[in-house]
Amino acid sequence: MSELIEPFTLSVPEEQLTDLRERLSRTRWPDPETVLDTSQGPQLAKLRALHDYWLNTYDWRRCEKTLNGLGQSRTIIDGLGIHFLHVRSPEPDALPLVMTHGWPSSVLDFHKVIGPLTDPAAHGGDPRDAFHLVVPSLPGFGFSDRPTEPGWGFPRVADAWITLMDRLGYRRWGAQGGDLGCAVTDEIGRKAPDGCVGLHLNFAMFPPTPDEIQDATEHEQAMLDSAAYFWENLSGYAKEQATRPQTIGYSLAESPIGLAAWIYAMFQDTCGTPGDAEASFALDELLDDIMLYWLPNTGTSSARTYWEMARSARPSAPDAAEPIALPTGFSMFPKEHVRKSQRWVERRYNNVVHFNELDAGGHFAALEQPALFVDEVRTTFRSLR
Fold this sequence. Notes:
Blueprint: E1 5-7, H1 14-25, H2 44-56, H3 60-70, E2 72-77, E3 80-87, E4 95-100, H4 114-118, E5 131-136, H5 154-167, E6 173-177, H6 180-191, E7 196-201, H7 210-214, H8 218-234, H9 236-243, H10 245-254, H11 256-270, H12 283-294, H13 299-310, E8 328-332, H14 342-346, E9 352-357, H15 365-368, H16 370-381
Parallel strand pairs: 4-5, 4-6, 6-7, 7-8, 8-9
Antiparallel strand pairs: 1-2, 2-3, 3-5
Helix pairs in contact: 5-6, 9-10, 9-13, 10-11, 10-13, 11-12
C-alpha cells in the first residue's frame, strides 16, 4: 500500500478563497520606493496593479481546472507524499522524461510545453520526438507534503524521483531541470541509475574556478559580470532563505501580498525583460504560480530548501574531479544572469551531446520561451532514444 499511486483532484474549499480575498482587502501598503527603477525591489504601482487584478478579476478555478485536466497524482516516497503531473504521450515509443521545477516555480512552469513534448504531431513536430512526462512538485512545494524534519536535500530528492520513475514502470528515461531542478537533475546524473539515458539542463549550478576566472575569454567575462551583478544586487532572497527561512516564513504565511512581492521580485529580476515582469508573463501566469505557494502554505517549507542546500555535505554541482558521465544537453538563455560557457561545462560533464546559447529568454525558460525550450529538449534527447 505504501507504493500506491493515487489520482489527485484539486478542489480548494471556497472558504480558503474567501479568506484570501479578505486578507487582500486589508492589505497595509508600504511607502513607495524612493527611486524610479526596481533597484529597491518591486515597485509599489506594479504590486498594486497585481493586487487589484488578484482581488477583482483573477479566477483560481480556471487554474484548478487546468491542473486537474493535466492529470495529477500523489504517492508516498521515503515517508513523504509527492504530488506530480503524469501526462502520457499517444506515441507508443515516447521516451519518459522527469522534469523538475525550481524556486519560486511550480509544475505550472511547464504547462505550455506539455502538449508539444507529449504530442509533437499535433503541434507541427515529429512524432519520433515524443515524451511521456512526469512533473513532480518538490518536497515542501505545491501539493507535495511539507517535510517535518531536516534532511530533504537534493540527493534525497533525486532518490525519490528515481523511485518514482521505477514505480511508474519506466525502465528507460531522461531527466530535465533548471534552477533548483538543475541540482536535482545533477544528482540523478551523479547517481547514474540504470535506465536513465541522459539529462537536459537550462541552468548550471557550478561556480567557475579561480583559474577559469583568470583565464576567461571576453564572452566568459561577460557571463562573470552578469553573475556578479546578480549575486551582489538581486540575491537577497537566496541569502535569507539559506540562513533564516523561518524568519521570512512568518511573513510568507501571513500576508498574501508579502508572499506575492517575494515571488514577483524573482520573476521581475530574471525574466527576458529585466525589470518588467509583465512584458514577459501574463498576470494570470504570475498569480497561478503565487497561488501554488499561498493555498498549500508552502512559502516557508519551500524556502527551507535553500537552508538544506547551504548545509549539504557536498556541493550541489559537479566539478572537474568528478564529472558527470551521463549524456547531457545544455541550453543557456541570454537573460539568465548565471550562465556558463561550453568549455566550462565540458570540464564537469564529460559527455555533452548538445550545447546552445539562445537568442531570447531568461530564467523561466519553459514558461517564457516554450517553443525554444521544446526544441532544445527534443534536440538533446534525439540521439539518446
